[in-house]
Design a protein that fits this description.
heterotrimer, A mainly alpha, B mainly alpha, C mainly alpha, A: Four Helix Bundle (Hemerythrin (Met), subunit A), 0% strand, globular, C: mainly alpha, two-stranded antiparallel ribbon, 1% strand
Chain lengths: 165, 103, 434
């Protein structure tokens, strides 16, 4: 058993556990915390796949930005402390059946269509290459994303501005 | 089993995706639904990076994942802004209560 | 009338002989042990795998124990600023005060209120401390060294040499808020809750100027590796603070905010929020928050020193020791690094006791209306300089900073809105004459 395999199974267990925690948590803040664990685990998986830059960005933008915004939203909108999230039993059973069936189907397809395990021969990409690619091959999507972010910024600022008296 | 390949990552992403789907379908809290969506997006990102690493051997998957992360941030910002307004209007965050537009 | 026994104990405690004697004995014992055990750890020191682990163990201990000294220094500086003595009862010149504080924290009753979310309540201080300590991994403490008994192996005094070092620091800094937010939520206390909400909003806002300042620096240095940034400064002798004073200030202000220190400690704000996020914490859990704050401060200073003040380079405007890998150079470099960090921490403390806390709207206005625009202007300017190939020319960089500063001052003078002004969205107050 190689070090990579051990690391993968460990991280996979952590990610799965936190994702299940998200599913089973009855409290919205605990759900957000479990999401933090999942994000951290996925970031470590990126490091394992030699995508260091992406892992760092996942931690900075996702865990440090997006999730903080979500937690902030939770705190602004929670009326009473420790409100339990209610789930109707029928819905719970239905959703569980559907998602488990989907998972089983997906796993079966993935395992059956799995090609021979090839070890990656790709070189480890550095930050400089990502930057070059982003500003040459992917320049158009990059610019589209920047315009979109500007629109989001204006939209969010417009949505939350206090009513004028 | 012992050599980690593409399938391992894809199965893990499938598990994440199904967890996210379950959260999105069962939770009534709007922020909870958003958290489910983030799980699904993470599953997609994991797939993209794994494909980039084990199939294409180029940077395209990583850059697509980068775009997904940025889009997720934008989505969360707008969603939270909407939820705060929703909460101001209805003083609840329950997604079932927003029925004004129903005919 | 004082109890004679207490009086005598106090006198013994306050005599300089006790503390300096004990210090000398401890230092002598340590030196003797190091000398006698030298053949045992000689191999480990020259091993590229074990040496970083040793560095980690030593530095972690150094930092955790220096937080205790920081607390004493903080109280002494507070005393100096407010024209009083500061702690001077326990030990000569109050030198045993950290010991007494630590004992007090350990021996106090540890209370967990009944209505809290217990797992999160217990997790929060641990998370705060772990996250603030993990930033040390990428600090290049003293460059590289070649031991005289193993001249072939070059070992680095950095725990982990990441190609994304600066991004790692940014990631750890952005995670630091979770301890505070969780503590605020889990305490089930309105004041703690407000503290958590404030901390979250403040952290999101001050991440931006921090990132923009770092971008200026990265455009100048062209590398994300901390050791590379330090090496460039050591070799040219031109520390980046001389090239980019404004980004340095941006990062300095943001790291005050990230460490939750006065003037940005709105998350605890004892006058309005009775202590904010740590209202419900007692004894050792409170001490962990305290420790996390100081560790955060030390990390922030260490990163700031590495990026802007030449890291281990002992002298500005000279490349002395820049390429030396001798063991004595290691000691000088480490000493220089730690001295710079100490000066930076002293600055943190002096600011804490000099500037009053901002109001929340002032805090937001500082971030979004002054720091972020200046940061964006600086990034654009530095990018232009980089395209022109002038990014490390001192007159170009200083000129850019001067232009940005003048533009900032001009806009501030024209806008007529002051940072210290009244809150915008409050109704006007009409006072009827009596």
């Amino acid at each position: 058993m190689t070090g990579e395999a051990i690391a993968f199974y460990l991280l996979a267990a952590v990610v799965t556990a936190f994702a299940l925690g998200c599913v089973l948590a009855s409290n919205i803040v605990r759900m957000a915390l479990c999401l933090l664990g999942t994000l951290g685990g996925v970031a470590l998986l990126y490091f394992l796949m030699a995508a260091n830059f992406l892992g760092a960005i996942q931690l900075i933008v996702y865990a440090g930005g997006t999730l903080i915004v979500i937690v902030f939203g939770v705190m602004l909108t929670s009326r009473a402390y420790g409100t339990k999230l209610r789930v109707r039993p029928l819905e719970m059973i239905g959703a569980a059946v559907v998602t488990l069936a989907l998972l089983a189907g997906l796993t079966a397809i993935l395992v059956r269509t799995a090609g021979p395990v090839v070890s990656p021969s790709t070189p480890d990409f550095g930050v400089a290459q990502i930057g070059t690619e982003l500003l040459s091959t992917y320049l158009v999507p990059f610019e589209v994303i920047s315009v979109l972010l500007l629109a989001v910024m204006i939209g969010a600022a417009y949505l939350v501005q206090p009513e004028k008296k | 089993m012992l050599t980690i390949g593409l399938t391992h990552y894809l199965v893990l992403a499938a598990v994440l995706f199904c967890c996210g789907l379950y959260v999105m379908t069962t939770k009534r809290n709007a922020v909870g639904i958003l958290i489910g969506a983030e799980l699904v997006l993470n599953a997609a990102c994991l797939n993209l990076v794994a494909f980039s690493r084990y199939r294409t051997g180029r940077l395209d998957g990583q850059i697509a994942a980068l775009f997904v992360i940025v889009l997720a941030a934008a989505e969360a910002a707008i969603a939270i802004a909407i939820f705060v307004n929703y909460y101001r209007l209805l003083s609840t965050i329950d997604a079932d209560e927003g029925r004004q537009l129903r005919g | 009338m004082q109890d004679p026994v207490v009086f005598r104990v106090e006198r013994i405690l306050r005599s300089p002989w006790l503390i300096f004697g004990a210090g000398a004995v401890l230092a002598g014992a340590l030196a003797l042990a190091l000398w006698l055990l030298f053949p045992l750890y000689k191999g480990l020191l020259a091993d590229p795998f074990w040496f970083p682990i040793l560095v980690m163990a030593i530095m972690l201990n150094l930092i955790l124990s220096s937080t205790a000294i920081c607390i004493l220094a903080e109280r002494k500086i507070a005393g100096f600023t407010q024209d009083r003595f500061g702690p001077n009862r326990v030990g000569f010149w109050g030198l045993l005060q950290p010991l007494a504080d630590g004992l007090k924290f350990l021996l106090k009753e540890d209370i967990i209120p009944t209505q809290v979310d217990k797992p999160l309540f217990l997790l929060a201080p641990a998370m705060a401390l772990i996250i603030s300590l993990s930033g040390f991994a990428v600090i290049p403490w003293a460059g590289e060294v070649r031991w005289p008994w193993a001249p072939d192996t070059l070992v680095s005094t950095q725990v982990a040499s990441l190609d994304i070092g600066v991004l790692y620091v940014l990631a750890v800094a952005s995670l630091g808020v979770y301890g505070v937010v969780l503590a605020g939520y889990a305490s089930n206390n309105k004041y703690a809750f407000y503290g958590g909400v404030r901390a979250a909003a403040q952290m999101i806002s001050y991440e931006l100027p921090l990132g923009l300042g770092l971008l200026c620096l990265l455009l100048t240095s062209g590398s994300l590796r901390l050791e590379e940034v330090v090496r460039q400064q050591a070799q040219s002798g031109m520390w980046y603070v001389f090239l980019h004073p404004l980004p340095f200030l941006l990062i300095l202000v943001s790291s005050f905010a990230e460490a939750n220190r006065v003037p940005f400690d709105l998350a605890e704000a004892e006058q309005e929020l009775v202590g904010g996020f740590h209202t419900e914490y007692s004894s050792m859990k409170f001490a962990l928050f305290f420790l996390a704050e100081y560790a955060h401060m030390i990390t922030g200073s260490a990163v700031l020193v590495a990026l802007f003040c030449g890291g281990w380079a002992p002298l500005p405007f000279s490349s002395w020791l820049a390429d030396s890998t001798a063991w004595w150079a290691l000691l000088i470099k480490l000493g220089a690094y730690l001295a710079k960090v100490a000066v930076c921490i002293g600055l943190f403390m002096l600011v804490r006791w000099t500037i009053p806390r901002f109001r929340f709207d002032q805090l937001m206005r500082i971030a979004w209306l002054s720091l972020v625009p200046v940061g964006i202007a600086l990034v654009a300017g530095t990018a232009t300089l980089t395209v022109l190939g002038l990014q490390r020319t001192w007159w170009a960089c200083l000129g850019l900073n001067l232009v940005a500063l003048l533009g900032m001052l001009w806009t501030a003078a024209r806008s007529g809105r002051t940072v210290t002004g009244r809150q915008d969205d409050l109704p006007d107050i009409h006072v009827e004459p009596a």
